[in-house]
Amino acid sequence: MDIKDLIDFLEIKSTSGDEEDASIWIYNYLKKHNWDANLIEIDEGRYNVTCNLNSKVLFCSHIDVVPPYFPPTEEDSIISGRGSSDAKGVVLAQIWAANKIVEEGILQKNEIGYAYLSGEELDHLGAKKLGEMDFTCDVSIVGEPTENKMCEFGFGLLKLEITAEGKTGHSAFPDSGHSANHDLVGLLASLGQICGNKEGIGSTIYNIGIISGGVAANVFAPKAVATVLFRLVEPSDDVLRKLDQLLKTYPRITYKVLSRFEPITLTTIEGFPKTVARFNSDAKYLLGRSKRVMLFGPGDIRVAHGPKEFISKESIEEGIQRYVDVVKSLTK
Ligand SMILES: [Zn+2]
Fold it and tell me: Could you tell me the distance, in angstroms and rounded to a whole number, from the CA of residue 44 to the centre of ligand 1?
């Protein structure tokens, strides 16, 4: 572990869509450590960095970070900077762990692979392109900041645009129109009813992210629209079925599915601390290529996209050891 390398990596801006310099940096870093890395173009000026994809253990994470960029600083045992937790600290912890795994003779160099992907925070383009490649690996370890706890479950996602149609009219005369706002607010207040539970994991949660509707306080709203994002513990069809049922009370409301993906079950190992992933990741794209998919790494998701993103050296050290221990127990 050489923290200076992490600071160098954090000096490179790699906001989603602008990952080129950081992907070249990782490519050169792997080469420097005698890994047979490749740069794979996924779009103009955007690359995945891969190595030994047909491996026993594939370390995978992402190169891109969310905006806005801020440069790294080191204070005592804390490294701050955009991407420190999510996921540049994770990427280097994986490479440092892999070097150790080889040094300790747990695996040979040709049994370990890497996939460092572009676009995770934006469009998952790197992961989609990786999923289209022809390879299989035994286990992939997707690195995200989970405080080194192994995720046993990844929430699914369902994003809806819900539209209520009303009839404009003077609000002093209730029979002169129909308020789309009233319908929409009524429906939104009932959404808790359509969220299911999964034992040991919790319940589907939702956020009403955007609401708009109406033209004036004394006019019935002709139209109202909301964007709602569900994080799912159940199949998205189950939520939509319950929503359809609820909409029988609101015949003027329709919805459009903007995006969705299903919840996933991940591999964990007995004896290691566990958690669940409420956030989105590239893990689902590995399921078709990897017999088992794990998701964990150093850093903390709660600071990950924030204005003071940081990672502690202690978390990185623990992460390196956790990766080594997990690979050791996989190869027993
Ligand atoms: Zn991430």
Answer: 22
Q: In this predicted model, what pLDDT tens digit does every residue of 271-314 receive, in sequence order?
A: 999 999 988 899 999 998 999 999 999 999 999 999 999 999 99
The full set of domain ranges for the chain reads 3-153+264-330, 156-261
The residue type found at 11 is: E
Report CA(328)–ligand 1 centroid distance (Å).
25
Q: What per-residue string of b and e applies to 248-272 under the rule 16 or more CB within 10 Å gives b?
A: eeeebbebeeeebbebbebbbeeee
- Angstrom CA distances, 7 to 71, 105, 126, 306, stand at 9, 29, 24, 18
What are the C-alpha distances in Å from 11 to residues 109, 174, 330?
29, 61, 35
pTM of the entire structure? 0.88
| Distant-in-sequence, close-in-space partners of 131: CB < 8 Å, separation ≥ 6 | 285, 286, 288, 289
Q: pLDDT tens across 180-238, in order?
A: 999 999 999 999 999 999 999 999 999 999 999 999 999 999 999 999 999 999 999 99
Looking up tokens 């923290």 gives: 3
CATH level 3 topology of 156-261: Alpha-Beta Plaits (3.30.70)
Q: Residue 176's pLDDT band (boundaries 50, 70, 90)? A: very high
User: How much distance in Å is there from the Cα of 173 to the middle of ligand 1?
Assistant: 53
Q: Is the peptide bond before 87 cis (omega within 30 degrees of 0)?
A: yes
Q: What does the alpha-carbon distance between residue 285 and residue 280 come to, in Å, rounded to a whole number?
A: 11
Q: So what's the pLDDT on residue 190?
A: 97
Check residue 262 and give its pLDDT: 94
> What CATH number belongs to 3-153+264-330?
3.40.630.10
How high is the pLDDT of residue 332?
Answer: 80
Rounded CA separation 31/187 (Å)? 56
Residues in Cβ contact with 166 at an 8 Å cutoff, skipping those fewer than 6 apart: 177, 178, 179, 180, 181, 182, 183, 220, 221, 222, 223, 224, 252
CA–centroid distance, 309 to ligand 1, in Å, is 12
Q: Ligand 1 centre from 214 Cα, in Å?
A: 38
